[in-house]
C-alpha cells in the first residue's frame, strides 16, 4: 500500500533521511522506534507530502506520489493528484491541533465537509459513530479546552478517521500526554489495529509495539538499522546499535 524507495531528505547540509527503503502492506501495523532525531517523524511527513523528499520515490496505493532527484522533480505530478493520493492517509500528530473555536463534533466534521464536500447529515452521522468508537460521544458539544489531553488526542484520531483513510500514520501520539492518560489513547489504537487498519506508528511505547505491531523498525541517524517481527527485535536483536538502544530503555 505504501512504499519508499531510496528516499533521502536533507534540510540544507543536514541529512535527515539516508536511503530509506520501506514497504507496508495492507493490514500491517508497523511500529517505528529509535532515538530522538533519528528521522522517524520526518519519514512520516515525507509520506503525506508535508515535506518533499530530496531524492527517491514515494508510492501510495501503488501509485507514485513523489519522485525527485537532487531536489528536482523527475515526474510532473499535478497537485490535485497528490492531494487525492494523500487523502488515503490519515495522520495523528504529537500535538492534537484541534480547532479551539469548534466543538468536538465540529472538529471531526470539518475535513470531510471541506475536502470531500460530503452531505452535512451524512458527515454528522459518521462523526457521531466515530466519537462513539473512541468513547467520546457524550463530549460532542464540548470545546477542546474542556477536555483532557487524552480526550483531545482521541478526538484527533476520530477526526483523522472521518476522512475514511486506508492508512493511518501516528507520530508519537502519546508523547505529549500525562502517563495516566496514555492508556486510553493506546486502547483506541489497538481497536483500530484489531479491525484491520493499516498503520505506521512512530512510538516510544515499547509495550504497544510488542503487543500490537506486526513489524518493528529501528531507525538511527536517518537510516533503518534493523527490522523484523516484534519478538525478534525485542528478544534477539542482531545489530549492536539496536541492542544498545533497547538496553537503555527496557
From TrEMBL:
GO terms for MF: ABC-type amino acid transporter activity; ATP binding; ATP hydrolysis activity
Q: Which domain of life is it from?
A: Bacteria
* Protein's cellular compartments: Cell membrane
Residue ranges constituting the ABC transporter domain according to the UniProt record: 2-246
> One Pfam family, short name please?
ABC_tran
Q: How is this protein named in the record?
A: ATP-binding cassette domain-containing protein
The cellular component terms of Gene Ontology attached to this UniProt record, alphabetical and capped at eight, are:
plasma membrane
Task: Give the matching Gene3D superfamilies.
Answer: P-loop containing nucleotide triphosphate hydrolases (3.40.50.300)
Give the organism the record lists: Alkalibaculum sporogenes
Q: How does it sit in the membrane?
A: Peripheral membrane protein
Q: Which PANTHER family does this chain map to?
A: AMINO ACID IMPORT ATP-BINDING PROTEIN (PTHR43166), GLUTAMATE_ASPARTATE IMPORT ATP-BINDING PROTEIN GLTL (PTHR43166:SF9)
Q: Which family does it belong to?
A: Belongs to the ABC transporter superfamily.
Amino acid at each position: 500500500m505504501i512504499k519508499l524507495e531510496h528516499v533521502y531528505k536533507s534540510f540544507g547540509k543536514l541529512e535527515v533521511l539516508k536511503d530509506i527503503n520501506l514497504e507496508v502492506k495492507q493490514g500491517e501495523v508497523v511500529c517505528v522506534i529509535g532515538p530522538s532525531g533519528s528521522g522517524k517523524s520526518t519519514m512520516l511527513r515525507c509520506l503525506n507530502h508535508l515535506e518533499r523528499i530530496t531524492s527517491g520515490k514515494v508510492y501510495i496505493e501503488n501509485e507514485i506520489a513523489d519522485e525527485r532527484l537532487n531536489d528536482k522533480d523527475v515526474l510532473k505530478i499535478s497537485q490535485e493528484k497528490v492531494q487525492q493520493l494523500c487523502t488515503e492517509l490519515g495522520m495523528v500528530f504529537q500535538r492534537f491541533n484541534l480547532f479551539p473555536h469548534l466543538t468536538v463534533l465540529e472538529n471531526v466534521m470539518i475535513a470531510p465537509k471541506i475536502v470531500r464536500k460530503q452531505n452535512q447529515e451524512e458527515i454528522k452521522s459518521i462523526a457521531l459513530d466515530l466519537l462513539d468508537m473512541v468513547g467520546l460521544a457524550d463530549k460532542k458539544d464540548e470545546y477542546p479546552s474542556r477536555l483532557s489531553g487524552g480526550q483531545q488526542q482521541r478526538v484527533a484520531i476520530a477526526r483523522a478517521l472521518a476522512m475514511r483513510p486506508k492508512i493511518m500514520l501516528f507520530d508519537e501520539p502519546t508523547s505529549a500526554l500525562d502517563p495516566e492518560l496514555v492508556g486510553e489513547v493506546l486502547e483506541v489504537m489497538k481497536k483500530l489495529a484489531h479491525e484491520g487498519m493499516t498503520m505506521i506508528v512512530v512510538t516510544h511505547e515499547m509495550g504497544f509495539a510488542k503487543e500490537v505491531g506486526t513489524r518493528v523498525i529501528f531507525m538511527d541517524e536517518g537510516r533503518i538499522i534493523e527490522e523484523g517481527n516484534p519478538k525478534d527485535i525485542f528478544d534477539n536483536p542482531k545489530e549492536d546499535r539496536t541492542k544498545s538502544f533497547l538496553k537503555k530503555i527496557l
